Amino acid sequence: MSIYKIKDLETLSGVKAHTIRIWEKRYNILSPERTVSKIRAYNNDELTHLLNLSMLNKNGYKISALSLLSCDEISQLVWKLRKDITVDGSQENLIAALINLDEELFRNTLGKLIETIGLEKTFSQHLIPFLDRIGIMWLVGSIHAAQEHFISNLIRQKIISEIDRQVIPEVTTTPILLYLPEHEWHEISLLFYQYLLRSKGLYTVYIGQSLPYSSLQSCIEKLNPKSILTCWLTSVDHKFMVSYFKQLHKDAGGIPIYAGGAQINLNIDLVKKYITEIKNSGSLLKHFEESV
Q: Looking at the predicted structure, is the pLDDT value of residue 207 above 90?
């Protein structure tokens, strides 16, 4: 069973640690164990309970009233709310789906967000913060690989399904080539880039994960793309990154290279002479719409 510190609960639930302590002391809503060093230790059930309370509180229920209810009564109220999923309660739903491996809750929450605000805003305003939270949970060891893979694959499937619904752009020019380097398997961001570009009617060729450099060279020679777009999230040696983009810049023969992701952001000063950084969806569209 996963164990959380109070700071983890704050990060995951959005409820300040100070508020959690007050709720515990005043309303006895959680009963954490104490480590040898007297640090609060919470389990999955307590995290789920706090997520439920946070959602109900955001929807007008007072903590003083909720503290008098049983866990079953709390669950019934939450179930009623989830039948009419709101944008405001989405983060709690997404985290609960992660903890409990609840595909139906995740898909319903994501579907409602996309229906209400569209995939672009859903990704930037909800999925990115959610994925940041997952990253923190992974670092502190409060989720296991199966949970992370479960949610990542559901997100990946949803973006692919949204791409599949788009009209294939007419081939009137050379394409934008999208790929991930050989060490990289995390394609959610690149898939989202593909969705955004296709939504603007831009002609793209999506190669995907872990492309060997020799195959990338072959694609460049065959397609002669108007630009190249990649994403780096997995940590690599700095010298390797510089050498890689220096060689790609040379082999691309003047074709613009765009790159996003955490590793690009952290090391942009080392590679900015070879690439243009994509910081967010706004900068992505600005660069590519200007090039049309």
A: yes
